[in-house]
Amino acid sequence: MIRYLARRAGHGLLMLFGVSILLFLLFQAAPGDFLSEMKMNSQISPETITMLRAQYGLDQPLPERYWRWLKSSARGDFGYSFAYNTPASTLLWPRARNTLLLSVPALLISWLIAVPLGVLAAGWKGRWADRLFSGGTSALLALPDVLIALLALLVALKTGMFPVGGMTSINAQDQGTWAWLRDLGWHMVLPVAALVVGSLTIILRHVRASVIEVLESSYMRAAEGHGLPRFKLLFGYALPAAANPLISLFGLSVAMLLSVSLLIEVVMSWPGIGPLLLESILARDLFVVIGAVMLSTVFLIAGNLLGDVLLYAFDPRIRRQA
Amino acid sequence: MNPQNSGRDSDSSLRSEFHTKFRLSWPIWFLVAVHAVIVLAGFVAPYSFETQEREHPYAPPTRLHFVDCAGKVHFRPFVYVTKAAENALDEYQQDCSQRAGIEFFPQGDRYTILGTFSSTRHLFGVPAPANLFLMGTDGFGRDQFSRLLYGGQVSLFAGFVAAVFSAFTGLLLGGIAGMYGGRLDDAAMRFAEVFITIPWFYLLIAVRAFLPLQISPVTAFLLVVSVIGIVGWSRPARLVRGVILSARERNFVLAARGFGASNTYLLRRHLMPLTFRVLLTQMVVLIPQFILAEVILSFLGLGIGEPFPSWGNMLAQAQQYHVLVSYWWMLLPGLAPVPVFLAYHSLAETLQERIKSNI
Fold first, then answer.
1. Based on the structure, what is the number of domains in chain B?
2. Do B292 and A142 touch (CB under 8 A)?
């Protein structure tokens, strides 16, 4: 178990290195940075900019800069934000927490809805309920995520039942922990709902497809022939047999969710990584860009690792391999 | 299986054959039609994408009438001239005294199709002072319907060109990796994996982040296309590599090698043609993703900029709360890709089933 996990984690770490190198190569190709934007400002002398450049180490060659960034990451700083004049981590951590606050509940809810519904749809294959279901998921799949986010925002604005934008009301902190938590929860409802709608369909379709594949096997027909009740057949026999590809899908669903989350955060002004990324791109605050992308990759790798653990727990074949 | 069904077997197989053919053909014809309309946007759209009717900001979709104010029925559909209400900027009143029938092939703004054919005749329109805003107007009084068609030129073709680009890169890199194997293969596949490890939107935006922000629309289009293409090369590359790895050991390839064929010749003549089906299917999967990518980049202000329309930057206007609440037609650019995506998805599904059943 430990060896298997260590191998997967090591692989993830290696990937993380690869991602950071890729980002630095792109960084190198970037025309201009935060400081070159400063040149436009006549109040800042060229000498100051040269000095700042030296101070931030931007005049160094690429390997040296990468090494410095690695060292600063090891310290937990992840480079430096030019725009906010702080280590990038002080910007990144709260945003990362907020993004997790949206995506973890959304991930759980999506799976909790998708698995039973997908199994039922597989059981109804070919009947009108399944047709309706397939049509619905196709339509939902074709709906751009941006539109889903905008529609959620529209619901908030039209009904007035939900707060618009942000994470908490301005004075929420003063009213005690419970009131604050309730306020936070109320702010979370629509973004999480939009996120679930945006990521549910693909999981649903995969659940349905893999359960259908299992249902067509001969051992399922044998179980059916023994007169097992339909419900037990579906959830007791078919679902565990179909679990392997579904757990592999878990990592993929994390990736998808993070991508959709970026859009929803931007549209619904949720202070997560997404808006920070966009803001730092427009300000050319490139270390923050790198940090934000690295963070999203860390989440994705963590999701994949969790998927590996689940797979290990569920599938005896993997245990024998490892 | 079921004895009761055996009598109907030939009938149902006939029907299913028709069914598969239909499932393959409707998305293709639909997509051909949509792309034709989009290419001919200048002709089909009643206005140009930058014509501003300053008197009509946020005008709702113009109502088509058959029955006039007096209750008389007309054969030719018509519109009434609308005027902004006295004390509100975005409320419009119909003027019952000024009626304008829809005309076919009227004169209008000059447009060019594919950079060669230039004309001023449009498919339909109404004579001034009446306006025909089928999907309303935006804040500058520009016709949303016309902009939607022109925007399709950007959005649909950005997706298409980017998919061709990444399929080609995938073919090249995946082909080389699969053919030569060893270190080269390892390096290429690890590199591909790095691209897959980053969440897709984040990668897309990150790659965009390191490129210049203020650029001309044509450069922006090329930039967006190449960013999307760069970000998406890894999946086709992996698929191509898989096909080539298995095909490399097939007898006719071994025979050709025995006759002294070089690796390049084998790749070009024998192996790459085998990847065609997989690659085509992958392209059909990728195109809607890439169209969406363009829409999102432009939506976030990182893609095609004003005054040129794209479905993304048109939808971006709906981010303002008052626009979102008051002018529902500003959300239509977000619905525009839906039928196109449905067609692509359905096509991809059918193609994937075919590949599966042929193995």
1. 2
2. no
